[in-house]
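Journal club prep — side note

Before the paper discussion, L.F. wants everyone to see what a predicted structure for a comparable chain looks like in C-alpha cell form. Sequence:
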Amino acid sequence: MAHRGVYTQSPDAGIYVRVNDMEYFLMRKDEIITICEIDEKGNMLAFSPNYRNPELAPLGFSAYDDHIQRWWNGRQVPIRQGKVEEMLRRKGFDEPGKYLLHNLGLSLTDYYWIRPIDSSLKWRDVNLYENDFRTDIFDPDFDEPADTFGERAATHTPNSSLKGDLEKSWVIRNGRRILIKGNHSLQSIESINEVIAAEFHRYQGYENHTDYSLIKIRDRAYDYGCWSAAFTSIDLELISAYELLTSKVRNKDLNDYEALIDTAEKLGIDAEEFRRGLEYQILSDYVLSNVDRHMDNIGVLRDANSLNVLKMAPIFDTGRAFGGRGVTPYTDQEIDHIEVNSFEPMERGLLKLIRGYNDEAIKFGRGYSAHRSAHNSFSNVASRSGCAGAAETGTAASASSSQHISELLDLDHLMPSNRIAELYANDSKMSKQQIEFKVRLYEKKIERVKRICG
C-alpha cells in the first residue's frame, strides 16, 4: 500500500487520536520523524510523507517515494538466519515482522524505533545501549558467563533487527554489548576466518578493524563460534554502504564505488581517508580471498548528534575468506578468476578500483608491466623524439602503482601462513588437505601482490 491519502494531518499538527492499534510514531531517540501504520504482522502499510524532522529520517531508500516502508520492511531479521524460525515459534511469533514489531524495531547499530502514538515511552526507557536484554538465540560458553538479569531483564531485544543469514545473537558480557556468530555448516570455518582476518590486520598495524575471538557455543555441532564487541554506541551509529547508495544524496551518474565515496564526503567524511580505507580493504580481501564484501558489509560511522559521517566503519564480516565454506580455489586459473559479491563481480575487477593498479603486473610482474606500458606509449608517439619520454612515463607509472600498493599493504609484516594453519587446526572437522588448500591459496595471493611491487 502506498502512503498516499492515508493521513489527513502531519506530525506537526500536534494532536493525535489513535484510531486503532496500528498507528505508531517513527522515532529517532526522542525525536518524532513521522507517523505510520503497521499491521499486526509487522508490515508497514502506510506513512505520512510530511516529516517533522526530515533530516533525522533514515538515509536508506530515501531516494524512493515509499522510503520509510522499504526501510522498515527490510529491517526485520531474515527468517533464514540460523535457528530464527525455531526461536520465533518457541516465542509465539509466526513470522519475523511480528517479532520486530514486538521489539519496537530497536537495534544496536542505530537509534530508530517505533512508539505507539498514545504512549509516553522515552528513549531512555527502551534503548538497548543502556537497558539490559537477554540473548534468545545462543547459549555462549564464555570463561566468565554472560550477564544474567533475572527480573531486571528488558522486554526487548536487538536481535529482531539483526541482518544476515548466518546465525548470530547480541549478548551482554561484563556490561559490554557482544555479537556472537556461528557457522553455516558443521565446520567452524567462518568463525576461524574472522579470527584470521583480525590477526592479519594486526600484523599490518591496521587499527580500523573488528577484533574477533573464538568461543564455544553449547548445543551446536561445530567446534567454535566467534564473538566481537560492538563498535557502535549511544553516540556513534553505523550506516551501511547499501543505505548510502540508496539515499537521495547519491549521485546516480557515478558507479557504486565512486558514488559511495562521493556520498560519504557530502555527509562529512574525509574522502581521501575513506578511499584509502576502501583500497586497503579491497587489497586485504584479495590476499585473504574474501568473496563476500557486499554493501551491508561495508559502512561508515556517524555522530549521533551532529549527524556528520566521521570515518569508515571498522572492517567486519570476513567469514567468507579463502572461499568460505565452499570449494577453495586451487589452480592458477581458478585463483585468477574468483567471483565476488561486491562492487564488481570478479576479484580482479575489484583490484582495478585501486588507484594506479595495473592488471598485467599481477600476472607478469612490475618489469613486464613497465615494458608494456612503455611499448603502448611508444606506439602512440608520432615522432622518434618522444620515445625516451614515453618509456620513462611508462616506467614511472608502473613504479607509482607499485609504490601505492606497497603503502597500502606492508609486505614485511604479513601474517605467517603457518599461523593460519594453526588456527584452522582448532577445527576438529577440517581435514589436513582442506587446511593445506587454504594456506596454499593465501601464499599464491601473496606471490601475486609481490609481483606488482616488484
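L.F.'s comment for the group: DSSP finds 15 helices and twelve strands in the chain. Keep this in mind when we get to the figures.
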